[in-house]
Design goal:
The holoenzyme is a dodecamer composed of 6 PCCA/alpha subunits and 6 PCCB/beta subunits. Interacts (via the biotin carboxylation domain) with SIRT4. Interacts with SIRT3 and SIRT5. The protein is an alpha+beta fold and about 675 residues long. It has 18 helices and 36 strands. It is globular, with a radius of gyration of 27 Å.
Length: about 675
């Protein structure tokens, strides 16, 4: 007999749950009703605090989001347009109408979309609606990377050498890059979130980077202006959370380490950083507050820095909104940042002094995405969540999500499934809890990045704190290949698979109390099994005593016991005295795979297929053209990120199967070469 299994292991621990130290005073009058101009997890996150404060909420949604979790959670909901963001979540006219229709007194923009749009803030102010964020001056000053750098210099904040102006075209970009010296960073003046950002190491990459960055900037922010500055090689990305009121008070709420990134977008964050000493932390915090005060900032905001190996730090940008990773700051300070933003927007002064801001324990956040981590550390995946179970049964685990079982992950929006946060008294405790939480997180129906997240948090370099923004390409130079089994791990997996198979067979015999085999077979206590793993076939001997199985593999004996509850997607077992948690996928396809013809590998040098679902933005060739190896053939946009598809060899174009504006799926044929 042989069966194919997919397992994830975890060690289980029981810990206490962290709580906010924030007090929600219902006698403190803020707003009666707040509209959240966003979707997904951040909309749900804001609504949770509003409910604690006794504030009614209004959701806005596109037509495809009509049954989304944030819509169900809100007290009222208004459709603001069709699926494309430009026609719904960025549609200011429709959102303003929703505000008038519902009588909302204030708007929380979340992050992304209109959160840093000064025109939106102006329109709200004109109608007497409070914007839960900074005023338009601060948004404009800090949202423009060129202006913000000049203000930072004037406020005596450390800045990166670069060109203090807007780059007009690709030729000027090349000239400036040569004056600064390679490598350089080309980035959108009005951007953020890794969009509109490219690193260039030579003139050719500068020209290409200018084109892509300007296109992405225009698509994401409606502003294609770019700037160029020196790229600091091998830095850490560390940011300071600030909080300021309308009375001249400002605080820094410690730092967040955000160096684990792919394509300039954060993947794993933690607070505090293993790298900063108290003196550097204080210097960064004081400069962040100095910058906030320079623009009369009032709300929650984040000042991002690049930090080199000698702890020199340089201003990168200021995000005038709530950050994706704000929960880890909440964990170590006990503050509810959304509550603080709402209080500040209403005009209340800060409740704390700098001396009262603690660092209590350690928090880690993993961004769980619907992405294929085996492709460039994460290319978007779409589909429906056929099974979804968050690890909220574990203590000190927080999951900020805006989806549920049955939800669709579409090409229109960011592929984030959730933010998984764990907290501990120490970093080691928080890491162990993250390992536990990731292994207990059940997601079926879409490809996700949990395998990559788990490998990151158990990697020796990450555990030791030896990280930089180059961590992923340095640790996985050939790309992420998944967990590599050790000899011991292979035997443990084989033993568990064999035990599970026998338990499943015995359960089947007792289906509905119907004994489908003879009593002699029912009393069987030993089995000889053939188990397939990684295309290898292994012979195992299995014996049973109650709920415990003894498995013999190559002379070694392993004991596996469990309650064998096969109805649950999670199964806890004890393997040679060590507790593990399994996620088990037993599929009919595995049993039938022997009957399937072997798939002949495709000549990928002659055929270009889309590596992800998305929209064709541009096609650079036509049938009959000759292309060089590495030459761009077309551009695919997925989740607002543009990806250049290039030729694998020098050849003539035989046929083109796509055109601009078309939607393509993963694996769709784009271009054939001769």
């Amino acid at each position: 007999m042989s069966e194919m299994f997919c397992f994830v292991f975890v060690c289980c621990i029981i810990v206490s749950r962290a709580q906010y130290s924030t007090v929600y005073d219902h006698n403190e009058k803020t707003f009666d009703k707040i509209l959240i101009a966003n979707r997904g997890e951040i909309a749900c996150r804001v609504m949770k605090t509003c409910k604690k404060m006794g504030i009614k909420t209004v959701a806005v949604h596109s037509d495809v989001d009509a049954n989304a979790v944030h819509v169900k959670m809100a007290d009222e909901a208004v459709c603001v347009g069709p699926a494309p963001t430009s026609k719904s979540y960025l549609n200011m006219d429709a959102i303003m109408n929703a505000i008038r229709q519902t009588g909302a007194q204030a708007v929380h923009p979340g992050y992304g979309f209109l959160s840093e749009n000064k025109e939106f803030a102006k329109r709200l102010a004109a109608e007497g609606v409070s914007f839960i964020g900074p005023d338009t001056h601060a948004i404009q000053a800090m949202g423009d990377k060129i202006e913000s750098k000049l203000i930072a210099k004037a406020a005596k904040v450390n800045t990166i050498p670069g060109f203090d102006g807007v780059v007009k075209d690709a030729d000027e970009a090349v000239r400036i890059a040569n004056e600064i010296g390679y490598p350089v960073m080309i980035k959108a003046s009005a951007g953020g979130g890794g969009k509109g950002m490219r690193i260039a190491w030579n003139d050719e990459e500068t020209r290409e980077g200018f084109r892509f960055s300007s296109q992405e900037a225009a698509s994401s922010f409606g502003d294609d202006r770019l700037l160029i500055e020196k790229f600091i090689d091998n830095p850490r990305h560390i940011e300071i959370q600030v909080l300021a009121d309308k009375h001249g008070n400002a605080l820094w709420l410690n730092e967040r380490e955000c160096s684990i990134q792919r394509r300039n977008q954060k993947v794993v964050e933690e607070a505090p950083s293993t790298f900063l000493d108290p003196e550097t932390r204080r210097a960064m915090g004081e400069q962040a507050v100095s910058l906030a005060k320079a623009v009369n900032y009032s709300s929650a905001g984040t000042v991002e820095f690049l930090v080199d190996s000698r702890k020199n730090f340089y201003f990168l940008e200021m995000n005038t909104r709530l950050q994706v990773e704000h929960p880890i700051t909440e964990c170590i300070t006990g503050l509810d940042l959304v509550q603080q933003m709402i209080r500040i927007a209403k005009g209340f002064p800060l409740q704390h002094t700098q001396a009262e801001i603690p660092i209590n324990g350690w928090a880690i956040e993993s961004r769980v995405y619907a992405e294929d981590p085996y492709k460039s550390f994460g290319l978007p995946s779409i589909g429906r969540l056929s099974q979804y179970q968050e690890p909220l049964n574990l203590h000190n685990v927080r999951v900020d999500s805006g989806i549920e079982e049955g939800s669709d992950i579409s090409i229109y929006y960011d592929p984030m499934i959730s933010k998984l946060v764990t907290y501990g008294a120490t970093r080691a405790e928080a890491l162990k809890k993250m390992e536990d939480a990731l292994d207990n997180y059940v997601i079926r129906g879409v490809t996700h990045n949990i395998p990559l997240l788990r490998e990151i948090i158990v990697h020796p370099r990450f555990i030791s704190g030896d990280i930089s923004t180059k961590f992923l390409p340095e640790v996985y130079p050939e790309g992420f290949k998944g967990h590599q089994l050790t000899a011991t791990g292979r035997k443990e997996l084989l033993a568990t698979a064999a035990s599970l198979f026998v338990a499943a067979q015995l359960r089947a015999q007792k289906f509905l109390g119907d004994l489908r085999v003879s009593n002699t077979q029912q009393e069987r206590r030993s089995w000889e099994l053939c188990v397939e793993l990684e295309k290898g076939v292994h012979m195992l001997g299995v014996s049973r005593s109650g709920a415990t199985y003894t498995v013999e593999i190559d002379g070694d004996k392993l004991e596996v016991s469990s309650d064998w509850n096969l109805a649950s997607p999670l199964l806890t077992v004890t393997l040679n005295g060590i507790h593990r948690t399994l996620q088990v996928h037993i599929k009919l396809a595995a049993a039938l795979s022997v009957h399937m013809p072997e798939k002949v590998p495709e000549d990928t040098s002659s055929i270009l297929r889309s590596p992800m679902p998305g929209t064709v933005v541009a096609v650079s060739v036509k049938a009959g053209d000759t292309v060089a190896e590495g030459q761009e053939i077309c551009v695919i946009e997925a989740m607002k990120m543009q990806n250049s598809m290039t030729a694998a060899k020098t050849a003539k174009v035989r046929s083109v199967h796509c055109k601009p504006g078309e939607t393509v799926g993963e694996g769709d044929l784009l271009v054939e070469l001769e």
